[in-house]
Structure formats: C-alpha cells, structure tokens
Amino acid sequence: MMKTLATIFGALALMTWGAAAQEGPVPATAADAQPALAAPAAIPAVEVQPAAEIQPAAPAAEAVQAEQTASAEPKTAPLSMVEVILFCVVVVGVIALGIWKSRDPEETEEEKKAKGASDYFLAGRGLTWWLVGFSLIAANISTEQFVGMSGKSANWVGMAIAGYEWLAAITLVVVAFCFLPKLLKGGVYTIPEFLEYRYNTLARSLMAIATLLILVGVPTAGVIYAGAKVISVFFTGYSAMGIDFGDITVGCVIIAFCATVYVFVGGLKACAWTDLFWGAALIVGGGVVAYFALTELSGADPNHLIQSAAANSGATVASLGNPSDSLWHGVTRFFELNSGDAASGVNTVGGKLHMIRPADDAEIPWTALCLGLWIPNFFYWGLNQYIMQRTLASKSLAEGQMGIVFAAFLKLIIPFVVVVPGILAYNLYRNDLKEQAEVKYAAEIRKTEDPAAVKGRPVIYKLTDSFLVENVEEGCAHAIHNAEVMKVGEDVMANLKQACADLKADAANDQTTLAERAPFVEKIASLNNKIIKPAVDNSDNYYLTDTLVGFDYDSAFGTLIRKLLPGTGWTWFVLAALFGAVVSSLASMLNSASTIFTMDIYNKLRKNAGPTELVTVGKIGLLVCAVIALTIAPFLDSPAFGGIFNFIQEFQGFLSPGALCVFLFGFFVPKCPRIFGWLGIVINALLYGILKVWQPEMAFLNRMAVCFITVVVIGFIFTAVNAARGGQPIVLPDRGVVALQSSSRAKIFGWLVVAATVALYIIFW
C-alpha cells in the first residue's frame, strides 16, 4: 500500500515541480485593476465608510460600448508557449495513461470476450480502495463545483453552500455501511437493476429511463457548460487559428470531444486511473488559487474592499488596515469583510460565514438541514449511477467501504478550495463580475431591438434584486415599462412609482447602506414579479427577456484564475487540473449513461446479446449521449437557469426524493410490496412538478422534503396493507459476485469523519 501511495504522490509532486521550476515573481495584479499602493500612508481614523456602499451602475449603452471596445482590442495569449506545452503534455499524458492501464497486455482475446461487459462497464470489478476514493472525488468535484458552487458562495449564500460537501461526508459514511452491502450482495451493474432485483421489471425500466434522461440532459450538459465557462472566461477575447476561445460553444466542443475519446476507448477502468491523478491535482489546484486570492486580499486597497463588505459586518476602511503582503492579514480581512449575522436578501446584506441561514432564505433555509438537504445528498452519493458505478466496481465490500470513507475525508477539504475562493472573488473582483453581467445585459437589449426576435410582441423585462441594486435607473425604467405594458391599475402603478422614487433617492445618498436599501429593492422586485406573472404564464404573446442580473457569479472562479495566476507559473497546472476534472466527470457520466442504456434498456429488449455486442452498443450509446448533452450545454449560459448549480440540483428533484424512498424501503422494509417500486417514483415526479408550478417561491430543497415525506407515508400505508393481507417478506439472495466481509478500519475512520464534520458545523454555525 505504501508503494502505491508513493507512486500517486510522486507523480503529483512531479507535476507540482514543473510549476515551481518555472515560477517567477508574482505580478502586482491589484484587485479590479486598482493601482498598486507602493507605500500606503496610514489611514486616518476619521476615514470611516459604511460597509457595502453601493456604486452607481454603468448604463446599458456604456456596457455595449465596453463590449465592443474589448472585442476590438487585440489580446495577448493568456498562456506562454512553455505553459501550453506543459498543459498539453500533462493532459494528453494522463489520458494516455488511463487508456494504457485499462488494457492488460497479457490478456488473450478469449479472456477479453469472456470479461466483456464487466470489464468495460465495471473495470472487471477490481478497483482498490484508493482508486475508488480518488475516483469518487474526481467524478464529483468538477467545474460544476468550481463554477456553480463558487458562484453561489460569491452571492449571498456564502459558506452555507458548503453544506452540500460537509453533509456529504456523513452521507458517504452511511452509504458505505448501509447501502453498499445491499447493492454488492445483488451483484448489480447499475442502480436501476437493483429495483428489478427487489421489486419488478417495470420499476427498473422506469428508473432507468428517468435516470438516463436526467443524467444526459442535466448534470452531463451542466458539466460541459461549466467547464466551457471557465475556458471562455479565462480566454475572453483570445483567438487562434480563427477560433474564438472566449466563445462558450467552442469550449463545450473541446471538453465533450476529449471526454468522449478516452471513455470510448478505455471504459470505466480508464476513468478510474485518470481520476487518480485529477482528483489529487484538483485539490492542490484549488488550494493554490485560494492562497493567491488571500495574498491578493491582504494587499488590496481597503477603499475598494469596503464595497463588498457585509452590511452588518462592522468593517470600515480604517478597520481593514493598510495593504500588506502578509497571508495572515488576508485571512483576517476575509473574516472581517464577510462576518455578521446571516440575513435574507440581496448580496452582502448579511454575513456569509454561516452554515445556518434564516428560514426564509431562498436557497438554503435552515429548515433544509432538517431533511431537504439530505435528500439530494443521499440520492447523489448512494443511488447516482455515475458515482456508485465506482463502488460497484470495488474488488470487495471492504475495499469499497475504505474507498468511500477516504472520499468522505476529502470532502471535508473541498469547501476550503471551492467555496472560500468564491467568496474571495466577490471581495476582490466585484466589478469584474458586474462587467460580465453587463455584457449579457447589453446582449439582451440588442435582442429586444431585433424585430425578428421580438416578432411584434410587447417586451417584458425579468428583473432580479441584484440587477435593481446595481442598475437603479434602468431597473426602475424596466419595471415601470412592464407595468405600462401589462396595464396595471392606478394604485399598483402609483405604488411602483413611489417605490422607484424611494430607491432612487436612497441611491443618491452616499451615506446609506445596503441593509437600508434592501427593502426598497425587494419591494420593486416583488411588485414586478406579480405584474409580469400573466405574461410569464402566457409567454407566446409576449417577448420575455432572460433574467437580468447584477453580477455573473458563475464567472467567479474563472475570474480568479484570469486575474491571479498569469505570470506565477501555476496557470498551466490549475487549468490542467480543472480541465482534467471536468473531462473526468464528463467521461464518468457518459460511461454511466451508456451502461444504463446498454444493461437496463438494450439488454432487456435483446436478452441474448453477447458481451462483445453489449460493449459495441455501449460505445454507440456513449456517442449519442455525448452529442445530445453537447447540444444542450451552450444554452445553459442563460441567466434564466439561475446558475448552473441550481439548474442541476433543482431538476434532480423530479426523481431523487421518490427514488430515495423506493430504495430505502427496498433495502430495509422486506414487506413493502413490489408495486411501490414504480409507484413511488411516479407519485414524486407528479407532486414535485405540481409544487414547482403552484409554489414557485418555495425553496427547491423544501419541495424535495414535502415530496419525500409524502412518498414515505404512502410507502408505509402500502406496507401496512400488504402485511395485513398476509404478505410475506421478500428475501434477497446473495449472488456471490464479491466478498462481503465488512471493514473494521473503515468504521473507525468513518466515525472520525462524522466527528470532524460536526466540529466544522460548530465553527461556522
């Protein structure tokens, strides 16, 4: 085992050495291009500004002009030739290693045919614990987190978004000892296959089709988009060989192509070996970005930083102190800027360093911690095909349990390299995130002026709190325009105009804070949502803009890379880690999608298909899934989806609560009747859809909780009726595929992970 670990970290050290060998002096890239303070004078005590003062927004015309000017200026290559070579060598080398390790040179053609589907889809059921652990993390932590989760943390949610990671650590421990033994006992290839093993064929087919549709259309497309988002932000304005690398579609094509190639050739085994390197490199790369961001924060102008301070943090220009090059000074500034009690509303109205948020929070209310947040966690880590496929490929139950607990430990580290950098991105580069949103706003304005797009329909502007805060004049004008188009009553119009007048007066007062301004903003946003609801419900007769936002939070991590890393010698390493991670996650999803299509759908239709035929069909299915996801991905750049992380999590709700209930009853309630296998999934999908339409304001985690409780109650009713009728318990046979001896070491480390998670929640309560 020690030799194995030495090989892993030796390879990682070699990659790190390549970065250090070319590392030069770090350029003085002050936040948001602020001039560097060579010898800052002491800040007088009387110079105290209120936290989170709001600067007036640039009008749309200026945004259009800025966009045109930026596109006209020639851009220098963001990577040096040496960095480009290092990037390509590492990416191609690791992918080639994965393909090479997926093939056994001593294996005969007959042996390959005998293994067939098991070898391609489940790596021959031979993965050891360290491969399982790193592979779980690499498959999970992708640009979905680095783009979506860091974007959410840059917004008002802050550290609370880390709940997905830290609760996942506890979830993984439970999965290792409660879910995995049941699944390995059944010797299944896929998660839906267990439903046939426990319930019936209809339950398996329904789960397989729903999983395949959601897997390809939501997380797979989402990961392609998220990876392309980093590429497009970093390479904004840069073209080579006539290709605009700042185009989101170009990034989508590059990422989808690379992932498809090596999973097509090597299957799950190729994914697992590349995951080993990308998983470790990703954690190091995120740590590097966090380090440079904290260093930059320590040297930033306090007059700039105060704009991003939480309104109730108590931070002032004087309290932030003079700029310095001390890392610890950056840490203290980080806590000072983002402290304060958690509060609902627009960004920085309250502190961001809390895991517990108010009950009326739109994203993660504290009530979600009681049940809602656990549902997607248990579904994702225990019943998600592209995650659990690694554990189903474990050499034994003990190896699988050790691998899962190892992954749980790594999950505790992730928020410090993903969530914290997102918060820092807003502190440092608030204006850059705003400019990204202004470019999108300018594009929307151009669409409203295009007769071919509008088709003579009245234009309706969809506004958000953040847009109104940053664009007071434009936001109020759009809200009043909407009211005029919808022909609201005199009382509503008077109320709206008064709210706009109050907001403008407040914006003109330099002494007001965001906390004082938030009620005016929320009133206008609420009135606007009610006014435009008939238009939203009847969108064929109106031209609805995309949702207008004040900041493009999904560009937070990409902005950090673009601003902090050039010239440090680390750019190629972090980009390679991110690129490898997204390709790794995407490859895992495509492999899982092809596995479900082949084993749960095709193999049921053609029961006599041989191993070679199944592998061939799996490869064809993989290509089809890749094309579908690639077609969807570029459209996710629209603000209408509310951020990539929301898009992925919310749409999983149509399946996850019901599926989790069905599996829990299948695992632990032997007398639950077989009909519940498909009925629970159908009831959940219908109920979730009804709540989404009738209660759109309800946080999606609370919708999940309502659906879960409803399906659980129905499950107990069916079980009670079945027991009353004399129904016999269903005994699941052991198919003898792998050894089912549990790991005592994994249990000890599992309890340590749970204790560490509780401690982190106490610290960031």
From TrEMBL:
UniProt-recorded Gene Ontology molecular function terms: D-glucose:sodium symporter activity
A Pfam family per the record: SSF
Segment forming the signal sequence: 1-21
Recorded superkingdom: Bacteria
Cell location: Membrane
Similarity-based family: Belongs to the sodium:solute symporter (SSF) (TC 2.A.21) family.
Name of the protein in its database record: SSS sodium solute transporter superfamily
